[in-house]
């Protein structure tokens, strides 16, 4: 599967990202949004996994070149992130995919993890071009999505033992969206921890939950973005 670093227009300038292409050459577009560590190998691998499923996947580099393995530094990078600027980078990534000759359809999916999960929801609430939104244990204290403006259906994937993006917060989000007449599907995995999908963190990785969440995500995107994916 071809993959490369690319640049796209954002906020009057350019931003970068990691693009993975399916062997078929065409597919629905998916924006993959990083955890607080940055655009690290795990996120690039997720892009490649989407490409293997037939999607064109782009992970924008919201930290513009910075990554870390330190939780303390990751927390500082996350809190220092300019949310308005990040939204413009995400908008640029969405527009880049929709203009790409290999992307089928007129809408893309967004999926994010932890900080990226919150930004996946935020991007979907700000962009009508988002046709499906997946949130893996999403949370960021500065991200306030406009749920009334949300048009894309939501798939939320959470963990029972998560004390950051708690099951209670997940159910609260589901209730809010449902009350607004939006489509929301929430799953909370028993005996799973925050970041259960990250197979590069053996202390929290849960293979059973991760496999089920992946299958649900791929099926969700295929359903809402078209069978071409």
If you compute it from the alpha carbons, what radius of gyration comes out, rounded to the nearest whole angstrom?
16 Å
Derived structural class: alpha/beta
CATH homology superfamily:
Alpha/Beta hydrolase fold, catalytic domain
Strand order of the largest sheet: 1-2-4-3-5-6-7-8
Main pleated-sheet profile: 8 strands, mixed
Low-confidence stretches: none
Number of separate structural domains: 1
- What is the beta-strand fraction? 25-35%
Order of helix and strand elements from N to C terminus: EEEHEHHEHEEHEH
How does CATH name the architecture? 3-Layer(aba) Sandwich
Q: Note the gap between the termini.
A: 15 Å
The CATH topology is given as Rossmann fold
Nearest-integer average pLDDT:
95
